[in-house]
Amino acid sequence: MAVDEIKQQVQGQKKLWVETPLRESYPLSQAAGCRIFLKLENLQPSGSFKSRGIGYYILRRLEELSANANADDDDKTPHVFSSSGGNAGLAAVHASRTLGLPCTVVVPLSTKPLMITMLKAAGAYEVVQHGPTWKDADAFLRKDVMVKAGSAAIYAPPFDHADIWTGHSSVVPEIVSQLGGEAPDVIISSVGGGGLFNGICQGLDAMSVDTTTLLAMETEGAASLNASVEAGKLVTLPGITSQATSLGAVTVTQRTLDYALRPNVRSVVLPDAEAAMGCWRLADDERIMVEMACGVNVALCYDGRLERVLGRRVRPDDRIVILLCGGSNVTFEMLANWRKEFGYVEERRDSGKGDVHVPSDLTAPNGH
């Protein structure tokens, strides 16, 4: 496929991501004691926010190929290569397929069969498993897999590139516009390698917003940002032990740490049990299924967690935006298993005798 043809195709394409709804959640607002808005990034084409950053990144690389093309490139079709624990790979596959390009994804051995099947069903050219962590998979992709494509190869990292952050930053003006032109009081976002978090900070800076508190959420066993904040320098975890595998980056970007040290940012770590609780309660209260990496954000709405993290009383008119980042590695069976395994986190709650406020109060595990 000629690069000029690719250029024409890109120029004529619709965006590889969509403007997602910002919906006020009355059950979660009732539970948290303030106004909770869900930014529904789970409705992106790939099922997660990754469509923004990966989509924007691939478009920029195609523009570069077009600008630097020569006659020898006319018979070469660009081939996208992605290293991912799952969701970034899905975003790369969806974007590539929309553009008519092949996409090979390399995932670590810890990636569940469900995600492998989803990548193949989405149209991946090839899915390769290698190494215990994303870092190992990424090294294998770049050193052993991509060489076969030569100059036609487009490497799509999952989070560590300025163009990816720029793509993710597009979520901020959407939120502000959807709130009537005003910035939210708080944005809650999960952090893996830092791509989404960097994009949010970049977007707020671009709009000169410095009054919004950012809660950077991680789970125990995947808290590389929190470890770095505590140390005041980048820390590399020895491995990932959290079940929230989408947060499985053993180190964050330097830019992520720089942003996290700002006074309006708080690094928050919750155990897997509370992240899982956020998933099943969101399913009961809003009929939305998400991964643990997203559930960790929702968990703050329940049982006073938000006030404890903010260190102040929440006000009824506080506008809190949760980046419902999505994630495709979740099923009804997984939700049921998480409730069975982690139901103890709600044992302290009342049985609901005359004190039922939201649907998930009635469906809590352990008979509550």
From TrEMBL:
It comes from the Eukaryota. Keywords: Cytoplasm, Gluconeogenesis, Lyase, Pyridoxal phosphate. Its main location: cytoplasm. It is found in: Cytoplasm. Transmembrane segments: none annotated. Its EC number is 4.3.1.17. It is an enzyme of class 4 (lyase). Residues 19-326 form the Tryptophan synthase beta chain-like PALP domain. It catalyses: L-serine = pyruvate + NH4(+). One of its GO terms (molecular function) is pyridoxal phosphate binding. The keyword Signal does not apply. Gene3D superfamilies: 3.40.50.1100. Its cofactor is pyridoxal 5'-phosphate. GO terms for biological process: gluconeogenesis; isoleucine biosynthetic process; L-serine catabolic process; L-threonine catabolic process. InterPro entries: Ser/Thr_Dehydratase, Ser/Thr_deHydtase_PyrdxlP-BS, TrpB-like_PALP, TrpB-like_PALP_sf. CDD domains: L-Ser-dehyd. GO terms for cellular component: cytoplasm. Pathway: Carbohydrate biosynthesis; gluconeogenesis. Belongs to the serine/threonine dehydratase family. This is L-serine ammonia-lyase. It comes from Pleomassaria siparia CBS 279.74. The lineage of its organism: Eukaryota, Fungi, Dikarya, Ascomycota, Pezizomycotina.
